[in-house]
Amino acid sequence: MEGFEKEFASYVGVPYAISVSSGTAGLHVALQILNNERNGRIITTPHSFVSTANSILYVGAKPVFVDTNSTMNIDPIQVEKNWNSQTHGLLGVHLYGLPFEIKKMMKICKENNGFLVEDCAQALGSTYNDKHVGTFGDAGIFSFYDSKHLKLGEGGMIVTSKKNIMEKCKMIRSHGMKKKYLHEYLGYNYRMNEIFAKIGRIQLKKIKKLVAARRERGKIYLEDLANVDNLEIPLIPENAQHSFYRFPVIMKKNTSRRKDLISLVQRKIGTELSTGYPIPIYKQPLYQQISKRLWMARVSSFPDYSKIRCKNAELIIRSLIELPTDPWISEADIMKISKVFKSAFEGL
After folding, report:
1. Residue extents of the structural domains in the chain
2. What's the rounded Cα separation, in Å, for the pair 107 and 42?
3. In this predicted model, what pLDDT tens digit does every residue of 140-176 receive, in sequence order?
4. What contacts 163, CB < 8 A, 6 or more positions away?
5. Which one, of 7, 18, 23, lies nearest residue 122 by Cα?
6. Per CATH, which fold does 208-278+311-346 belong to?
7. For residue 114, pLDDT beyond 80
8. What sign does the dihedral 334-339-340-344 (CA atoms) show?
9. What is the DSSP secondary structure assignment for residue 13, as one 8-state letter?
10. The pTM is what?
């Protein structure tokens, strides 16, 4: 396990990497260390897997959802607008592998004495200003779930440049133990399986090729779909490198026929397409009925999530289609998928 941690830290470019049982466990551990006060607010995006926001609940804090912008990532203007004296930090997500506006987020956090945690579950291999994502904030968290860039079946990694965070992470992932049977913190059984760590070391040797393959597939879509009317494709800043967990496109017309479009394309290509997360996190039943579903809501005041509207995020979620970028799909097949999709979309 230590060998995998050292090699992963070297690949990402940080002094410390701490393996955990999942990306969700990594978020929980990092936030438990950084969120020193209870009942505070942590800002995050509504457009992510639910574990992003749930990890905030785990540490007794309140998720504050702010809208995204045209990148599909959290909007720094909205972050700044919603930051107040009760806000302790920001949990940002590099959705689909496109880095969010890190420089602006770091400035906001620094000016407000808040922490920054980067959710890099979909962003292994992505860079910003020639540095790997996950290395800018207080901690970065990666996922090795079966659909991710590094596929272990399960597992995660916390990365940090701060020795004190690394030391606490190692204790909290193992029942809060500093040494055997001496428990200094409330901890959990979040250790990575040794077998998964061995698989991770093998796969890590191939990660540059795997990420390069995803970028090649992303490039095919970028070139083929660039001039399609009423179809929005990722805009990648010059100072960023995208790792294309998926290739997301936004329909600017006929969104009511999205399912028909997907069915038509799937019949012709034999490859499954998806629409991503079906609703913003705040529309999940847990958040809509949080006073009944969460014991903390009985002793602390939570936002009324039923009244929240992040208009841009909701529009994107209703209009989004994910095209595959998996390295095992040949470039010839990606070209076919792109052409079939383009033809079907233009024919709507």
Report:
1. 2-204, 208-278+311-346
2. 16
3. 999 999 999 999 989 999 999 999 999 999 999 999 9
4. 15, 16
5. 23
6. Aspartate Aminotransferase, domain 1 (3.90.1150)
7. yes
8. positive
9. T
10. 0.96
